[in-house]
Amino acid sequence: MKKGICIGSVPGGNTEARFKNAKDAGFDGVEIGPLGTQEQRLEIKQLADENDIELCSVMNGKHWSHPLSDADATVREESRNAVVTSLETAETIGADTVLLVAAVVNPNTTYEEAYERSQEEIRKLIPIAQEKGLTIAIENVWNKFLLSPMEFAKYLDEFESESVSAYFDVGNIVAYGFPQHWIRSLNSRISKVHVKGFNSNEHRFTYLIDECTIDWNEVMSALNDVGYDDYMTAELPVDQDDPEGTLNKISSDMSKIIAGEV
Predict the structure, then answer these.
(1) Mean pLDDT of the chain
(2) Residue 52 — pLDDT band, cuts 50, 70, 90?
(3) DSSP states along 59-113
(4) Is the pTM of this model over 0.90?
(5) Cβ atoms 234, 9 nearer than 8 A
(6) pLDDT digits (tens, 9 = 90+) for 203-247
(7) pLDDT of 66-108, one tens digit each?
(8) Of all helices (H) and strands (E), which one includes residue 220?
(9) Cβ–Cβ < 8 Å for 99, 139
(10) Which of 99, 9, 7, 14 is closest to 57 using CA atoms?
(11) pLDDT number for residue 193
């Protein structure tokens, strides 16, 4: 299993410094956001290659501010175009996956509307992902949507496409479920994994081990059971008091988690 980290979780004054710091801390890859021009994509790819860092995935933008589930067709179109930009970014930089928040349930969007609209919009994106050989991976987030692992699996299966999968976030699920259960339910549908800590007693996010109540050994057992052997990517804040020390600890903690030594 490879260790990844979101670019926003890495300290550094510029992208090159962040790549260098990630590599020095022992990470194999970095997840970035979408880039609007081909020049930007080629430049960041070159910086990653120079620092021997893989660009493992792209975190899509606009899915919160302009959700695919919005009632306004122009908002949905803008959201869809943002996913296309993410797919184009992934293709150029050599990533295989784009993270997507599929829908947002809110006072103006019912659960049923979120389900139907998001599926309709994602189906328009599948041919683009297929053409580029990429995966659109839907993340479990606090969007009041896909609230059980069985429903999540059903939602994915209804696309009838290997180009749509799950981007499973371990920390995000702890507020209302057990990550090891979700992993076994989603099984081979999982194409990427995010990690962050969570303290269920105090209902707050934490770093990976300290003050965290997640049973990481059970999580790893479940991932091994379903045959997952891709990136585990940390999504955590930069500690301004000790940025590089904390980055190294995140890497060390991830190594312990992967080895089943927590």
Answers:
(1) 98
(2) very high
(3) E-SSTTTS-TT-S-HHHHHHHHHHHHHHHHHHHHHT--EEEE-----BTTB-HHH
(4) yes
(5) yes
(6) 999 999 999 999 999 999 999 999 999 999 999 999 999 999 999
(7) 999 999 999 999 999 999 999 999 999 999 999 999 999 999 9
(8) helix 216-225
(9) yes
(10) 99
(11) 98
How far is Cα 45 from Cα 217, in angstroms, rounded to an integer? Answer: 35
**What residue has token string 């928040």?**
101
How many CB atoms within 10 Å of residue 115?
19
The structure tokens 């702890």 sit at 174
Dihedral over alpha carbons 201, 245, 230, 186 (to 10 degrees): 10
Concatenated DSSP letters for 39-70? HHHHHHHHHHHHTT-EEEEEE-SSTTTS-TT-
One-letter amino acid of 257: I
At 4 the pLDDT is: 98
Burial class (CB in 10 A: 0-12, 13-18, 19+), 237: exposed
- CA-wise closest residue to 8 among 27, 32, 41, 26: 32
List of E strands, 130-229: 135-139, 164-169, 190-195, 197-199, 204-206
Rg over alpha carbons for the chain, rounded to the nearest Å, is 18
Report d(CA 144, CA 96) in Å as an integer: 27
Widest pairwise Cα distance in the chain: 49
Q: Collapsing DSSP states into helix, strand and coil, what is residue 166? A: strand
Task: Give pLDDT, residue 225.
Answer: 98
